[in-house]
Amino acid sequence: MADMKAFRDEIGRWAAGDPDGPGDPNGPGDPGDSGGTARGLAAALGLRTAVLLEGPSDVAAVEALAARHGRDLAAEGVCVVSMGGAMNVARYAGLLGPPGLGLRLTGLCDEGERGFYARGLERAGAPSGGFFVCAADLEDELVRALGPERAEEVVRAEGDLRAWQTFLNQPAQHGRSRQRQLRRFLGTKKGRKIRYGRLLVEALDTERVPSPLADLLRSL
Questions:
Q1: Per-residue model confidence as pLDDT tens digits over 20-42
Q2: What does the alpha-carbon distance between residue 80 and residue 180 come to, in Å, rounded to a whole number?
Q3: How far is CA 180 from CA 28, 44, 136, 137, 219, in A?
Q4: Is there a smaller number of Cβ atoms within 10 Å at the N or the C end of the chain?
Q5: For residue 98, what are the CA distances in angstroms to 77, 104, 170, 174, 199?
Q6: Using CA atoms, how far apart are residues 42 and 57, in angstroms rounded to an integer?
Q7: Beta bridge partner(s), residue 134
Q8: How far apart are CA 167 and CA 105, in angstroms?
Q9: Which residues, 6+ apart, have CB-to-CB distance to 88 below 8 Å?
């Protein structure tokens, strides 16, 4: 039976450079090719929408919010995809959107990258609507929605208090707002942003979900 992880893995291999795929003018490729396999998995899964996100921490946050609302995105035909960086948006849009698998595209982007996304989507021949903009990034939106004090409570509950205190003592952090410090702290250790993407969403009051994240979930 097809599963979402298998589909994501095939998309990742295809995006990394497999020349045979749904967007190839010569056809979908052989069943063993990443493009042909991705097409078959998409059909088996009944996919209709791809949510393009910059990295795995964003995926963790979106999936955590969906779970809080009792939604199974995979069962609804929605695939949440980490692109491995905003610079890959044109590639993923071409593979997953109308030029490729024909899925509806949506996602999140940072304010500073809005123009880059628009150009990338245009270059891929994909529609530019449906992307929701975070002021700085999703972590910044989550910390602001929680408030620094509540976010620090999450850090303490996770056993990261000592690491947080050590981080605050660094000269580079002196004079920065607590919100900026928290946002920077989340990116200082591999895997921390992914873990806190989920934890911060789970700590949110349901009435205080950042609007880009809430709007994205409502659109699915």
A1: 444 443 344 444 466 788 999 99
A2: 27
A3: 46, 44, 10, 11, 29
A4: N
A5: 16, 7, 48, 48, 34
A6: 24
A7: 110
A8: 38
A9: 15
